[in-house]
Design a protein that fits this description.
alpha+beta; six-stranded antiparallel beta sheet; about 300 residues
Length: about 300
């Protein structure tokens, strides 16, 4: 017995089922047996029907699996063809709940304090506290301004301001509250210059003394420099002020010769000594301002 597509086929010699009602069996020659059924044939046919049902059941399972697979494939294709609807039901950004209405703390940036002004420290005795003496104003054995070098001679300090002046300058210093005068003499090539620094409590006092000045500071001899600019000899005098300091120069020849407008060496020496003193006063203010900037805030 062999099986083909669609169920069993019956070969010659096998019993064939009649389509007539009643289910009578016929022999291969078409004649009904009319006698005892062929039990062996019936058993074979029953077994064949069972196998056919089993095959149909297995085939149906394969078909069902194929259908489920097709459905899954369809879902996968639908998910990958750009028709993904995930997120479509989410609210738009405008519709999303806003953040908490509680105001965040705000901070106003605080600008750093400006650096101290150096001149403030040398314009008032209340802030100008650095040590002050001839050694701090005129350190070393000589000074240099540009390519000019001058040897330092004698130095002197006094609180009796009028005692180291000539002419009307003494009374001007006293009347404006002079606290002390520091003097130093510098020389080069037969020319000597004495500078006197008058110290006041305020800038206003120093400015007033400079504007009212008459006469001049007395020359300071010693330490290798003879007496000069005394006994009526003509010398060059200057007056300046910066901060609470007014400073005055007197310069001339150590020989006692009178100074004229053509004596450039005397003019240059006087200007150089005054310039050096000005720089020393400025440096004093800068040093104190720098120290104040680096100090911890109180």
């Amino acid at each position: 017995m062999s099986f083909g597509q669609g169920g069993p086929s019956w070969g010659p010699g096998d019993p064939q089922r009649n389509n007539n009602a009643g289910g009578r069996w016929q022999s291969p020659d078409g004649q009904g047996s009319g006698g005892t059924p062929d039990w062996a044939a019936l058993a074979d046919e029953s077994a064949a029907r069972g196998r056919r049902k089993k095959l149909l059941f297995i085939g149906g399972g394969v078909l069902a699996t194929a259908v489920v697979g097709a459905l899954v494939a369809a879902v996968v294709v639908a998910a990958g063809n750009g028709s993904d609807t995930s997120g479509k039901d989410l609210p738009s950004p405008e519709a999303l709940p806003s953040k908490s209405g509680e105001a965040l703390p705000s901070f106003t940036p605080k600008a750093p304090a400006p650096p101290p002004n150096p001149k403030d420290f040398i314009s008032s005795s209340k802030k100008d506290k650095a040590p002050l003496s001839a050694a701090t104003l005129f350190p070393g054995a000589k000074i240099a301004v540009g390519d000019h070098t001058y040897a330092k001679a004698a130095t002197h300090r006094t609180t009796a301001c009028a005692s180291v002046t000539q002419g009307a300058l003494g009374s001007v210093l006293v009347n404006n509250g002079c606290g002390q005068v520091i003097r130093a003499t510098f020389s080069k090539g037969g020319v000597a210059v004495t500078i006197g620094v008058a110290v006041f409590d305020t800038e206003a006092q120093a400015q007033k003394a400079m504007k009212q000045s008459a006469g001049g500071v007395a020359s300071l001899n010693g330490a290798g420099v003879p007496t000069f600019c005394r006994n009526g000899s003509v010398c060059r005098r200057t007056a300046n002020a910066y901060g609470r300091y007014a400073y005055f120069t007197v310069g001339g020849f150590t020989s006692g010769k009178n100074v004229t407008q053509s004596d450039a060496t005397v003019f240059t020496a006087g200007d150089d000594v005054a310039e050096f003193t000005f720089r020393q006063i400025v440096a004093r203010g800068q040093a104190q301002a720098s120290a104040a900037a680096g100090a911890p805030a109180s």
